[in-house]
Model the fold of this input.
Amino acid sequence: RQLPCSRTRILGMNTVKTVRELRAAVARARSEGKRIALVPTMGNLHSGHTALVTKAAQRADFVVASIFVNPLQFGPNEDLATYPRTLAADQEKLLQAGCHLLFTPTVDEMYPHGMADQTIVRVPVVSEGLCGGSRPGHFDGVSTVVSKLFNMVQPDIAIFGQKDFQQLAVVSALVRDLNMPIQIIGEPTVRAADGLALSSRNGYLTEAERATAPALYRVITHIGDALRNGEQNHAQLLDDGKKALEAAGLRPDYLEIRHAVTLRPATPDDRDLVVLGAAFLGKTRLIDNLHLTTA
Ligand code: PAF
Done:
């Protein structure tokens, strides 16, 4: 039988492009009593993403992944046009990792009435500052597209990487505040041997920049070690950390010690902490973090 052109099957994984097909495939799985997991992505998948899919396949019977480079979460001077699109390779990786259904909508399918008039989901407080400060509107775009995907798939669980720590906090707050019956699971960051967090944007780095890039995580872990050793002078730690980033050749965007759940600036009494950093290396913006508890 000829498959409709928007729908292709690669062995055990279907790729669908429309919300109608997505809902039909998920409804079939649901009618078979399957527990549904969703892994939202923007594609250009690396082993950090496939680890999310592997986890999803362990926790659910039917794994849905999405690949959608969401224009609503990119600022006017950001890399929307150049963001790498590698669908064939991504499909192969998803299949190997245990994905059952891939959703690859077009911009028109996601925003059929245009983006200007789109209802926006805004999560206060946790969306503000950090990446939300440097990328105005970014988390509104993320919260909106994630809410749409959640409504389209209605998964039991959804899995996100802890590398985007603030994004995970924003998504957790949105399901809580909007009473969405979805369990949000954060998976540990996957790193290269030299500590650099895997990211689709690492592909932008030149060879020399790639050699410099692990300095971000080195500085963050150095601050984490000092906090674990009882250092309480956060301002000094952060000041020294920014100087270390600059000395390594990175341009700090922010470096912060926050409460890991509220993301408010940490007080000396807080025990559940996260050190978050973002820095530019040439034109590439890298982010990373370390979640830790102090005694
Ligand atoms: O982390 C990402 O790749 C994106 O922000 C997400 C969650 C897929 C929403 O577009």
